[in-house]
Amino acid sequence: MRALPAVLASLxxxxxxxxxxxxxxxxxxxxxxxxxxxxxxxxxPDGAAGTDAGPxxxxxxxxxxxxxxxxxxxxxxxxxxYTDREAGAFTDPPACSGCPGEVTFERLVSTxxxxxxxxxxxxxxxxxxxxxxxxxxxxxxxxVFEIPWGEFGRVxxxxxxxxxxxxxxxxxxxxxxxxxxxxxxxxxxxCSAGAIRATLTWDDCGTDHELHIIRNGSRIYDPMxxxxxxxxxxxxGLDWPPTSSPDGDATKDIDDxxxxxxxxxxxxxxxxxxxxxxxxxxxxxxxxxTSTDSTVNLFIDEVPVATxxxxxxxxxxxxxxxxxxxxxxxxxxxxxxxxxxTAPITDxxxxxxxxxxxxxxxxxxxxDAI
Length: 370
Fold this sequence. Notes:
Layout: E1 10-12, E2 88-92, E3 104-110, E4 116-122, E5 131-138, E6 142-148, E7 156-160, E8 165-173, E9 178-182, E10 186-187, E11 196-202, E12 209-215, E13 226-227, E14 250-255, E15 262-267, E16 273-281, E17 292-300, E18 303-312, E19 316-325, E20 329-332, E21 345-347, E22 352-356, E23 359-362
Antiparallel strand pairs: 1-6, 2-9, 3-4, 4-7, 5-6, 5-8, 8-9, 8-10, 11-15, 11-17, 12-13, 12-16, 14-15, 16-19, 17-18, 19-20, 19-21, 22-23
């Protein structure tokens, strides 16, 4: 059974309308360091995040220098403040008697695979007007996730990491100013060529939007070829070609079920072919709302290539589009024309039925092979 709603949060990230992006050619990166140690920071007396990482190591082509040396993104990167600050806590303005209390990292853990980080922050709020956000920053990537303080008293969030070295910047602010903490470096998985990533977020008008990455020629909920919640969230994910190798494998490393959630799916070293991206409106519509906004950010080799958003109602399926590998060309479903009969939005209410045991989902044979 799907879990109950979790913390309210929303994504403030790349802004760009649906369009055909490409061709994208990041070139062939040099061999990456294969030993990216996970970080289990835990608390330190000063409240900062510790690290088990040791001296910096080369994590691949995208940790090689400042942002100007990175491949150009297909869509604008979000603005992030304090990227030049060292790890630690501070307020802005420096002398701020009315700012939120000091942000502490009560827990900061990255998964063994080094693809996500779970952050639990501590703060003594003085009102529900405090707003908190966490920015994930790497040499070439930036994403910002906003957390409304006080919703269910939750102060924990799992966010996707970019490959290579990352830092987290937590900002909690009120009318007086900001309380900020910058993490130590979090060393994620090494960068490698042929990586697909899709990050799904939605607003607080709905719960449990469901992300799918589907190999061409397959259909939604194909247990071997659809990377989604029922078969792709376990250790190792799905063994896609080449078999018995981590190359080409798919995993869903974040699977949220609440309002304002985050989901994240990846294919590492994707084999040549087409990869469909779809989203189900799985959960419920919040009272007072008529629809819920769904947003997908797509990355090739960790470089953003597209951001698309649509409003969805219960049991609708959004066909986001297709990624062609190894070129990295993304084509939105709205631009596929006569290549498919699958509509950009499909009402699956009449075909919402069992998929595994007593669990439910869309049972229509979508998308078409193209």
